[in-house]
## 1
Amino acid sequence: MSLVLTGDEEALRDSVRRFVADRTPLTAVRQVIAAGEPYDTGIWKQLSAQLGLAGLAIPEEYGGAGAGHAAMAVALQELGAGLVPSPLLASAVLAAGTLLGLDDMAAREALLPGIASGELVATLALTGAAGSLAAGSRAGAAETGVRAAGASGAVRLSGELAPVLNGAQASALLVPASGPDGLAVYLVDGAASGLTRIPLTTADPTRALARITLADTPARVLAGNAASALGTAADLANLALAAEQCGAMAACLVMTTEYAKLRVAFGQPIGAFQGVKHRLANMETAWELGHAALRAAARSADESPAEFPRDAAAARVLLSGPYFTAAADTIELHGGIGFTWEHDAHLFYKNALSGKVLLGGPGEQLDRLASELGM
């Protein structure tokens, strides 16, 4: 298994990097945040239609590129470096991954082409770690916060979920719910009766989260093994978040290193002081380790499915915590300017803070990793 990018992956990386630099730099991200928008719809259309990112990991038979999860990780790494707000994680990773993990061919044919083109935004309505939910289902103790009632042709869902990624923007929601037959995944239309969606104000302004309330809401049960599909979603979530965090951590390292060369104290750049050098070296070392783990997980996603759960959890553990430390160091090493709203450092810190708990933080991933290793 090679950890080096292929020629196609290098070309994809360069294309996304140029797009982020030209079309959605942090100044543009700030404008989206200031406007109170979850993401720039024009940028999302270009990411989906022009660059084809939404369909990267979706098979060609459903309108995607069939490029695999390693390619998606490359794209997410560049988007993470720019903190680009988009529904890519919710729609093209979580929702699409869950659909591909289930056996409902009708749902795949109805939803995946729209997800691949970016015209349809979908989400998987989870409040925690999908892996924990899947494990609970296998142990006969899964609890989702949503209950299903009624016959298969007239199912109604009731309950509340928060926070849900892009829950207020999704036109289709995949909702895990507990019913008479145990855990299943249900499809809910974004315009369904009894569905209430309230956007949440959170620390990280680059993540669009919502509170979802279902009150006797009509839904359709999706065929397939829900525990298996949610386990797949957990692994894909770990890979995707690790990729974003790897890119953002690299951006923190570059930003801080450049500042350390320019900021002068006591007649010399602060980068000449040993205390600053050590923290930058620690940041670089942690990034290298996390990047290697990310590449291993990205490769196993496409080539070694049996090893993927372990590798994805390891990548998340080795990036979520160190990214948070790097973001905090970025603020401190920038001195007084790093604590101001005008500087970009706080955006990375808030993103790192949310990433530590989103869809199951490093602690839950350590448990998952231990389980995969038989410990």
Note: Residues 226-262 form the longest helix (37 residues).
## 2
Amino acid sequence: MKLITRFILIYLLVTAVVLSAGGVISYYIIKKEINFELERRFMDRIDRVTYLIEHSDRFERKVSQPGKTYNEHGMIIRMSKQHVDPHVVVSDTMAWHDGLQRMENNLKVAAYRNVNGNGYYIATFGVLVESDDITEAVVKTLLWILGLQIIGAVGVGMFVSGRLFKPFRTTLKRIRSFKLRQREPIPADETKVREFNELNRFVQEMTRKAISDYQNLKEFAENASHELQTPLAIAKGKLELLMETDLEPEQYQYLESAERAINKLSRLSESLALITKIENQEFDQNEAVNFTHLIRENLQAFGELIELNDIMVETDLAENVMVNMPSFLADTLWTNLLQNAIKHNVPDGKIRIKLTPEQLVISNSGMPLDDINPESLYERFKKGDQNSNSIGLGLSIVKRIVDQNGFDISYTYNDGIHTMKIDFNKS
């Protein structure tokens, strides 16, 4: 969800809550004002009735009948021969509404008056505006306000998203396209918004520092790898010369062990350098790689090793499967998968290879893992067999190649078969 969309939704939610509370408050304020106006009118009516009782003998005889209550035209008059305490009582009452054919809430005003020596109870009731009408008016008003708020919020959101957030989107686009090897920090453009200026300056400083750190690390890794290979080559050459001399069998064993350690160290240095280059995305020139030809050529190259280990290979390869990725990484990916299947196989084992335009599946017979979580196999220096001569970086390299190219990799083990599956179209 976009930031501006989230802001609009929060704004509209707050607006709806405020308008709901405002609607309730408005209802009671309007009702109070209407009741006040109605009370004033009723008091005027009571005053007129009091005046008529006091000055009209005919009206006084009509309403002044002991024991009887006058109830006409919304007026209730009851006479008492005893004096009363003059006061006014305002209350709510229920009365029948002829138009609606139901009982409605009415305002009732009752006054106690002393006129011509007699006490009178004079009351009137009615409703100026019905409660339903007030509610309907308030709801309609609030809905109009809410509609205008929505239109305004969407309009402001489009303006904010289109113009105000343009520098932010520009910076975000530059961050996405930023490459360390370009050695150019993201420029800090000046905008009219202080927060965006601070963000741009921060991004510029961080990318400048990242480029500097990357360059230093790259030079160190390259120098370390180069400098390491030279003494390793010298040591390996000296060992080979020494092995050509007359030595005791035990001495030959020591030399072979030392040579294996040097070879492993050399492979380790090369693999670590390769992982560093992959993680730094130094291989980004994609091309259409024919995986079908790549697998067949690689199988021929490893033919002697496969025969030496008495492994039977079964293939089911679709013709001309093209995968868009750097050719060097494609060769490295497949070589590591095949070497892994050969190295961790069993005597008289099998390797099955299936290739389709959607996925690559390679399975090999082998012993189960030594209590290792399959997900951890992609970590550096993790090995299914801790006693093997593997340096533990093959699948780590595979995982990084897969991730960089947007593929998906999965591993399963069933009935003595290890299976690696790579989906070229990651879902």
Note: Confidence is low (pLDDT under 50) at residues 380-391.
## 3
Amino acid sequence: MSYPATAFRCREARLVDASAMTRIYNEGIEDRTATFETRPRDPSEIAAWFDGSHPIVVVESEPDGVVGFAAASSYRQREAYSGIAEFSVYVVRHARGRGVGRAAMLALIAAAERRGFWKLVSRVFVDNEASRHLLTSVGFREVGLYRRHARLEGAWRDVIIVERLLGEAAVDAPDA
């Protein structure tokens, strides 16, 4: 199914979205292209993300309902890092490549800025060109490479480290 850009609606995720988010996340786990997770999750595990500390957004379409999401989570426990969040973005298979991920990331960036976060970071598989292109297109920069970061199904995988400065941290930040 093809979606025009106006067919999406982004909003803050609600606990009731945990089941749809679980289905989408489990597709990502099965595909082995975006996460080191290997065990499917159940809705109660996704529901645990809803502790109110970090933004989570969903993208809806008619008539499919939730077709994607982006979620932020804790980066590190030290107080100095309190304004940094890790993020992930997932799109249901049949809607990939149609702007859902972009809509989710733009909504997450805005939500994180509203909450006072100053940076979003993540790691992306080197060969995940679609995610790398998406993130670059919404203002992330690739800052480094973790070689042999972890194994997935017995094979070493490298990941690209990405970041985007937000709010005050982004103002007049020198380009690196």
Note: The two ends are 40 Å apart (CA to CA).
